[in-house]
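2024-03-11 09:14:02 DEBUG pipeline.ingest accepted 1 chain
2024-03-11 09:14:02 DEBUG pipeline.ingest length=236
2024-03-11 09:14:03 DEBUG pipeline.predict start
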Amino acid sequence: MIRKFLAVVLIFNLTACAELQQVVNQLPQGGGGIIGNTEIASGLRQALDFGIDKQVTKLTQTDGFFKNELVKIVLPQELHKVDKALRDVGLSKLADEGLKVLNRAAEDAVKEATPIFVDAVKGITFADAKNILLGKNDAATRYLNSKTQTALYNKFSPVINNSFSKVGADKIWSNLINKYNNLPFTNNVNPDLTDYVTGEALKGVFTMIAIEENEIRTKLSSRTTDLLKKVFALQD
């Protein structure tokens, strides 16, 4: 009986030691000690800041949305019939301009709203930082999205609305919709384009942040600070 008991204890200890060693092996080492969640969180925030600085700023340039197939804003489904009807009656140029100004409004709005995204990153604590670090290549971006989407939308929407006026999108779309509604055999439409472009612009922003996060996770050369090198070494 005693021998059986000792055997069970030995097996238990060996299993526990193996599991403990596995955990220890996953912990990053650097500077003579284990990196804590606070430092990991700082590294993740830095990666997101780089995404904003290097990638999101590209969206603020002319054609930053319009000529970037990853984020280009296309017409919502309910406006496809509007686009087709206008082209069928020879108003292709107006339809093209309508699509372009939606992207122009997003480009202008992102330029104005970049500080909103910077502040959102600063406010993230990443209590579960290690899980995020060891997650998918866009885990930090997804986390930022899930935690800030509503607040960012509420702040971003009026900026988009202002940009509509600034780039003349409101007048162009008012003219475009009126022409469509005056066509025979069509049902009147009155889309909420501010809501639509706000949502699409936010998607574009998070897409570009994710690109930079992926670069930092997968390419050593993209880890341009000691903190990024130290933190992201864990997930290599």
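2024-03-11 09:14:41 DEBUG pipeline.report The CA atoms of residues 55 and 208 lie 5 Å apart.
2024-03-11 09:14:41 DEBUG pipeline.predict end
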